[in-house]
């Protein structure tokens, strides 16, 4: 028999026991579907009760609907418990009510740098979707956040899912085998040593359902232009592949050129992906004759430790039937070029080619792939004309949505160690310094 007054105390103790040793997850102002994709998988280290702080909005409703969908799916359902705080002062309430934990950020980017800084100042770890900063004027605030995080022994990390894409992983692996790749060439503006280019689409499906995008996604003051948004992934890959686990300092890069241009969208297309019949007033500056101009596209050329690099991102409305977002990449080595293509010839599946230069050793390539197959089972080499294809089995192609769990597990390991590698922090800051500098250069050129 439980005595009067003891039962509430017992419940409190049980609640504490449930949370003991678990990471307390806090989702702040979710507005992008990436916030939900982090929770598409359960993690034994993270408490199932997730506190969500956000204003009442369609963005919040969509987020909760996605989490509910993961909980109710037939195969491998999750068991998240969403506790929602949706008062107007949600952010202040989070800062006052919670005690530490991990703040997950993925939504409207206009306030993201501010959210990051204040969360760190108040003792929270921060796990943020890219980009961490979209306005060159806010870069100093991001630097400050990292300084305070180091002083307080807090984690501050962004979600770089593209490091988990298997063709990119194997491109990196082969580039580190000198008998195959040789050494990274210096390259030039016309033929950079490394190129990363991607095409994205506004109309797409996520977790098997048509994606509804918030209207603010098309306002670059809230979402960010292409040079500071998706480009953060591509710049990250140039650092990570060319100089793995090495710190890239600001003086290791030199920005040479940057440009930006708009994706043109009809009112009908806008309605298709947002469900809205009218443009919100904040989009009026970008509307001409009922047509919306979104500066989501950009390209930059820079040198990285003396090697030429190019990054380019483009947005179209919808992919051709049977296709989706596409990625192109090349790394030029003295022995061979490693090229990722995703065209009709490859059935729009990312495919890694090894294109030999003079003095290429085919036996060394075969030996390298055989060795890598121990870590990546099922990969094999197929000769195709005067080049080779690295065939990748379906089991290794997990897809973009699965990559969020992989990055989150990496963050959890950092949390256990209470340490992010120093090179990661240095490269984070250099990456966003480059993207914001590129945006500033491109904007000044088009004024």
Q: What is the CATH homologous superfamily assignment of the largest domain?
A: Dihydrodipicolinate Reductase, domain 2
State the name of the first-level CATH class of the largest domain: Alpha Beta
Number of strands: 18
Whole-number radius of gyration? 23 Å
Give the CATH topology of the largest domain: Dihydrodipicolinate Reductase, domain 2
Shape: globular
Mean pLDDT reading: 93
In DSSP terms, counting alpha (H) and pi (I) runs of 4 or more, how many helices? 13
Q: Gap between N and C termini, in Å?
A: 77 Å
What do you see in this structure?
- The protein is α/β, with parallel strands linked by helices.
- The protein folds into 2 domains: 21-158, Rossmann fold, CATH 3.40.50.720; 162-411 and 428-445, Dihydrodipicolinate Reductase, domain 2 (2-Layer Sandwich), CATH 3.30.360.
- The chain contains 13 helices and 18 strands.
- The chain has helices at residues 6-19, 34-37, 58-72, 90-97, 112-121, 139-152, 166-175, 178-181, 231-242, 267-274, 362-372, 400-417, 422-445, and strands spanning 25-28, 49-53, 81-85, 102-105, 125-128, 156-158, 194-203, 205-206, 209-210, 253-265, 287-288, 291-304, 307-318, 326-332, 336-341, 351-356, 380-384, 387-391.
- The strands form 3 sheets. Strands 7, 10, 11, 12, 13, 14, 15, 16, 17 and 18 form a 10-stranded mixed β-sheet that branches. It has a 6-stranded parallel β-sheet with strand order 3-2-1-4-5-6.
- A hairpin with a 2-residue loop joins β8 (205-206) and β9.
- The chain is globular and about 65 Å long.
- Mean pLDDT is 93; it is low at 1-18.
